[in-house]
Amino acid sequence: MNILLVTRTNWDEPPRIRHQVANLFREAGHDVIFSQKPLLLHNTFFHGSWPACNPPAIQGLELISPIELVHHQLRLLPQLHSLNAYVASRSLKKELRRVSAVCPVELIVNFNYDSFWLKAMFPGLPIITVVNDDFEAACSLPFSTHITWVLKRTCRMSDAVFAVSDALCNRLSNWCNPELLLPWSPTPYVHPASSKCRSTLLFWGYINNRIDFDRLNAFAAAILAYKLPWKLRLVGPISQSAWKAVERLASYPFVEICPPTPLGHLVIDDCLAAIIPYRTDMGTVKACQLPNKALQLLSLGLPIVCSDMPAFQRASFVFRYGNGLSSLLDCLEDVSSEFWNVQALIKEFVNSNLADKRLTQLMMIIDKANGAFS
Q1: In degrees, to the nearest 5, what angle opens at C-alpha 224 toward C-alphas 254 and 205?
Q2: pLDDT for 170-179, tens place per residue?
Q3: Is 138 part of a structural domain of the chain?
């Protein structure tokens, strides 16, 4: 099957669910056309040329970069959405002619909340939309009615809708019948090695401003002042906006900052838990149920320590901390006493959410959507 993934993400960005879905399909033998972050028309005009897309040498993957007229958060009126749809659809057709002449597109998996025009462009193809974020809460403007307007139309034109949290499913249920799509682990659960000293909290992911650096700095200061046994290890790419905060945190001798590292090469024998210290005051965090890499970390037998995000997965191996330093310290004591007791539950959860299970879930919806067109 030739599958078009419509995204607002470049292939070389830190891996997110769009990349994982693309690779899930590729590994199952399908060919994927990955439509990357759209280029703004005025930028291409002033640069004097239309930037070329240089796809990586990856079997079963083609990259395209279409054009759009106006930044998606600035289309305040329906007329702007209509004008942008005209430009975007014509550009996408042009890009697809370049890469899909031999094997035409058979399925569309859409990650963009504003691609309501895809059904008019592909009336005979099944379209699956994945709502992977709270796009209304993520709006940079003090109002988001224009985003709600187009999100509703995108959901209604789709043959199936997935959302990455129960909170988002509840929100979208006003317009469609969404199904929960959690991330998955590429490998089964592995029982952690015996270790006399598990005192490190591991963060493995994109280091950006979603992280509550104020809380982590207060935690590090307490470790230093009271000679506490805990350590922090942050592994992953660092966003430009987080550099100063990371440098401040790295000044503590027990805080380790590491470059991006594959799952199989992580140092974990000294790790007590995977920490997800997201800020709870961010709109996009409020709908977070299970971050993209959580199941991969769980597959290593690491419980999760996280801030008190309202929609986060409820489980005995998820340890939440509230406001105040004492809450985090008490949380770590709880993990220390329960680390081995929760391993059986972690194993059950991970092995119920492996890649093959998620592919089956996607294919069942795709078969259903295809059946409507047969």
Answers
A1: 40
A2: 999 999 999 9
A3: yes
* SS3 label, residue 171: helix
pLDDT 10s digits, 329-351: 999 999 999 999 999 999 999 99
In a domain, 188, yes or no: no
What does the block give as tokens for 109? 């998996």
Distance CA 67, CA 86 (A): 10
Question: Are 304 and 271 within 8 A, CB to CB?
Answer: no
Ranking 80-84, 151-155, 275-279, 300-304 by mean pLDDT, the lowest is: 80-84
Identify whether 194 is part of a domain: no
DSSP letters along 6-45, please? E-SS-TTSSP-HHHHHHHHHHHTT-EEEEE-SPEEHHHHH
Confidence of residue 275 (pLDDT cuts 50, 70, 90): very high
Together in a domain, 49 and 89:
yes
According to the model, what pLDDT value does residue 98 have?
84
Q: What is the DSSP string of 128-143?
A: EEEE-S-TTTT-SSS-
**pTM listed for this prediction:** 0.89
User: Buried b / exposed e across 203-218, counting CB within 10 Å, b at 16+?
Assistant: bbbbbbebbbbebbbe
